What we know:
Layout lengths: L1 E4 L10 E3 L6 E3 L1 H17 L9 E9 L7 H14 L11 E10 L5 E8 L7
Parallel strand pairs: 4-5
Antiparallel strand pairs: 1-6, 2-3, 4-6
Amino acid sequence: xxxxxxxxxxxxxxxxxTDRRTGRSFPSEDYRNWHKAAVTWLRTHYKIEKIxxxxxxxxxxxxxxxxxxxxxxxxxxIFDLLxxxxxxxxxxxxxxxxxxxxxxYEKGVSCCTVExxxxxxxxxx
Length: 125
């Protein structure tokens, strides 16, 4: 299964807002807006298939600026999205047995290409 999200992927853990009354933290409005747009994009542009077995995932992030970003933060956001939209049952190590992340810069372009392959067969899902 291969699909592309035409959005800049924000960090879920670095863009949190803390409620000063309770001390609880929540994802920022930017993250929540991205998540909602990404879920809608996936459901309207791709046939969502639930994958039960272990998988390997390759993520290719294209960044529109050369601003410093940590790859693991975007990776976590994408993995959470895959669970929330129903493609994966969980993002634990027994489901995602291996993952690879590539990053590149292309002026004015922000997107993430997600490739999911079954870990047991080595072929595309």
